[in-house]
Amino acid sequence: MPHKGIVYVIDDDQAMRESIDFLLTSANYEVRLFESAPAFLDAMADVEFGCVLSDVRMPGIDGLDLLKRLKASRSRLPVVIMTGHGDVPLAVEAMKLGAVDFIEKPFDDDRLIGMIETSLKLAGEEAKSEAVSQDIVARIQSLSPRELQVMEGLIAGMSNKAIAREFDISPRTIEVYRANVMTKMQASSLSELVRMAMRGGVIKD
């Protein structure tokens, strides 16, 4: 049975790491343990998509510093912060820095598992959505300047003849450009082309 996802546990308390390792492994997660934020950052080059579960109070680089560094590197990893009693202001600061959630120690096992499950799901969907958007932007960038002009005319609702008059080109040539646009954009209809243009930033809100 495949695991439900990877969880990177960062905590300087060995007993806490081992306890979380047992809990999450039992819940069918693949767990990777780190005793400090620097140890995790050093391993970032080999880190696969997963959820980061980090304590907020650690010597050296603490949870907030870790969030700042992950944000600076444009990391897509969801981060859940563990806090001690009375650390709510720190937790709020962590969420401002990009943490998806926080949980207070001692925590309910089921709540932690549910939190990690939700974080992985939402971050996975966001990553897929971002990949699609980047792909659409790449398709738009593959258009020649004239093809881009024709695309802009099409999504503005202009007919082939109107676009031809706009650029003083024959309607037949516009048909060729239009076919090229639809092929390069991998759009099967004008409505799909409009949706892609919106997602790719050609149509501004």
From TrEMBL:
GO molecular function ontology, one term from the record: DNA binding
Recorded superkingdom: Bacteria
Keywords: DNA-binding, Phosphoprotein, Transcription, Transcription regulation, Two-component regulatory system
HTH luxR-type domain segment(s): 136-201
Residue numbers bearing the 4-aspartylphosphate modification: 55
One Pfam family of this chain: GerE
Gene Ontology biological-process annotations: phosphorelay signal transduction system; regulation of DNA-templated transcription
Domain Response regulatory span(s) in chain numbering: 6-120
SMART domains xrefs: HTH_LUXR, REC
InterPro entries referenced in this protein's UniProt entry, alphabetically: CheY-like_superfamily (IPR011006), Sig_transdc_resp-reg_C-effctor (IPR016032), Sig_transdc_resp-reg_receiver (IPR001789), Tscrpt_reg_LuxR_C (IPR000792), WH-like_DNA-bd_sf (IPR036388)
Keyword Thylakoid: no
This protein's name: Two component transcriptional regulator, LuxR family
Organism: Rhodopseudomonas pseudopalustris
